[in-house]
Amino acid sequence: MENNIKKQILYYNEHKDDLLKQYNHKYIVVSPELQVSSFDALSEGFTYGVENYGYGNFLLKDFTTPTQQVHIISPTIARI
Amino acid sequence: MITAHTKHFDTIVRRMIIPCEIAIPGEENSRQTLSALWDTGATSTCISQEVAETMGLKPEDFTPVIGMENKTIEAPLYSIQISMGSFIIPYIQVIGLPMSSHEHNMILGMDVMVHGDVSITNHNGKTTLSFRQPSLETIDYSKEVRDIKRYTTMHMAWQKQGNQKCPCGSGKLWDNCHGNSVYLPKKAKY
Ligand SMILES: [Zn+2]
Fold first, then answer.
1. What is the ipTM of this complex?
2. What's the confidence (pLDDT) of residue B189?
3. How many domains does chain B have?
């Protein structure tokens, strides 16, 4: 899938532990120039990202929920 | 502000699929109506990747998703607005996933349900899904059953004693005390 945030994801993966330590319970926005800003709410981070870097050009990471990394999707079971 | 939405199904249903509007926050033109399956087994809300691409949603993060057969895939995350009737979540990150169902192109997960209270009732052979935000009270059917038993016992004692006083010992009249309960049918008071 096409995306403009490959550089930001790479940066995030390299600095994951430090970022998580520094911005625990926050949302962070990583800009195309790899600047990091933190926010208390998703709405603030999203609005800031769109206004400053344009829609689709920033990484928006949620550090507010500890279980954020894993999602279980239950199967739909149909009896035929 | 309290908001709520209710879906009355015509029959008992085992899958609750209801219309759900989504949009890119601040972009009214992107608004679309999806068919959303309510799924307590999903920790996060998902939309069909096909829909995401048609709407022009752009990923702002990626997350590992464990799906069927314990397969893990890296899926994109999108910030969207969700609305069902007056029930609105202005900002929520949802996952884009390939979906093969013809009946739904969205899965509403627990991340939406925890915004308030959700009930599923099946009275008179019809499923009703109702939800509101914020949460207003704890619904406890076990407590209801205990209360009904307590009031029924009290009612029997009142009938037996043959006067207008409440048998609980409060000194009040039955009608102004335990007789004045939603758990007792109106006619039972007389
Ligand atoms: Zn009483």
1. 0.88
2. 46
3. 2
Give residue-wise pLDDT tens across range B102-150: 899 999 999 999 999 999 999 999 999 999 999 999 999 999 899 889 8
Nearest CB to A60 within list B44, B61, B67: B61
- pLDDT per position as a tens digit, B21-75: 999 999 989 999 999 999 998 889 999 999 999 999 999 999 888 776 777 888 9
Residue A73 to chain B, least CA–CA distance (Å): 5
- pLDDT band of residue B101 (cuts 50, 70, 90) is confident
Report H helices in A26-68: 42-53
How confident is residue B100, by pLDDT bands cut at 50, 70 and 90? Answer: confident
Q: How far apart are CA B31 and CA B48, in angstroms?
A: 15
Partners of residue B108 in chain A, C-beta under 8 Å: none
Q: How far is the CA of B51 from the centre of ligand 1 (A)?
A: 59
Same structural domain for residues B125 and B35? yes
pTM of the model: 0.85
Question: Could you tell me the distance, in angstroms and rounded to a whole number, from the CA of residue B137 to the centre of ligand 1?
Answer: 25
* Domain range enclosing A13: 3-79
**Among B54, B12, B20, residue whose Cα is nearest residue B37:** B20
Torsion of CA B180, B182, B184, B188, to 10 degrees: 60
Residue of A nearest to B93 (CA): A42
Nearest-by-CA chain A residue for B92 = A42
Domain range enclosing B62? 3-133
Domain co-membership, B10 together with B89:
yes
**Ligand 1 center to residue B141 CA distance, Å?**
22
d(CA B85, CA B64): 31
B2 contact partners, CB below 8 Å, separation of at least 6? B132, B133, B134, B136
